[in-house]
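The records we work with from here on pair a chain with its fold. These numbers are not coordinates but entries in a learned vocabulary of local backbone shapes. To see the layout at work, look at the sequence and tokens printed below.

. . .
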Amino acid sequence: MTMPRHSLSAGAVVLNDEGKILLIKGPRRGWEFPGGVIELGETIEDGIIREVKEESGIDIEVIRFCGIYQNIQANVCATCWLAKATGGKPQTSSESLDVGFFTLEEVLNMVTWSNFRERIVKILNEEEQPFYVPF
């Protein structure tokens, strides 16, 4: 029997005090919410806190786990979280060309990669949680 190999990632919709959503502009996928692969020996919550800080310069507090998207062909389980900004200031990194906070309407017009717009809507809709979406 072959041992399965999966990648575990986490992404967060981060809200500021004005209710605006944090986005980063990545070099491959364009505008998206921050996130990335969880490192070995790291909790998922610690991983999303680290990823958001690395990609955007923003410190966060995790509010809640919202659900999972499972990319069956790529063997990736992507956990989805809601968080609030608690400090830091928007700054780019090697993983982000631009960073900012935007209204939901702006976000839905800016995010075009794969099912990321759908993920944002589900993360913001507590009635749909927890969700599991295989694709």
